[in-house]
Write a structure and sequence with these properties.
Layout lengths: L2 H27 L6 H12 L5 H8 L3 H13 L3 E5 L7 E5 L1 H25 L1 H34 L1
Helix pairs in contact: 2-4, 2-5, 3-4, 5-6
């Protein structure tokens, strides 16, 4: 087996894992009135005080325009509201509504139930090993992404 074949096989395995997990998570929330990106935005708003679209944009590496579209959609459905800063009227913060909190709570319960089934079927030992490997993989991928981003920024500034 040559190096290229080995890399392709390893890459295919990682892609299969991440694609299947992404599909599974999307399927878990498909019956809900929001998509997984909107859910992540709601959760970040719920977990933060005085969060802005720029901060959400940075957090998820999406454009401010995309955040604005998600926020408008969530606001129309009554899950969040915008609030002007008392100190700087140009600064807009997001607040989650009671309906948004309830939706996040129901979604968390639903996802936790699904994860508990996975844990039950895998067994505690395999489940813990899997989660540890996924954490390590995610950390490494984040580091690589940060390194590549820093390299691109350095190249632009030259």
């Amino acid at each position: 087996m040559n190096h290229i074949t080995l890399c392709a096989e390893n890459n295919d395995g990682v892609n299969i894992i991440f694609e299947n997990m992404k599909t599974a998570l999307e399927n878990m929330v498909k019956d809900l009135p929001i998509n997984n990106k909107e859910l992540l935005i709601l959760k970040s708003i719920m977990d933060s005080e005085d969060i802005t679209s720029a901060e959400i944009s940075d957090m998820f590496s999406v454009s401010k325009a995309a955040v604005s579209q998600f926020a408008s959609s969530l606001e129309k459905r009554g899950y969040l509201r915008r609030r002007l800063s008392d100190k700087d009227r140009r600064r807009v913060y997001f607040d989650i509504t009671d309906a948004g909190r309830e939706l996040v709570r129901r979604t968390d319960e639903y996802i936790a139930g699904s994860i508990n089934i996975v844990k039950e079927r895998l067994g505690e030992k395999d489940y813990n090993a899997m989660t540890e490997l996924l954490k390590r993989t995610t950390k490494i991928l984040a580091e690589i992404s940060g390194e590549k981003r820093a390299t691109r920024q350095a190249e632009r500034s030259v």
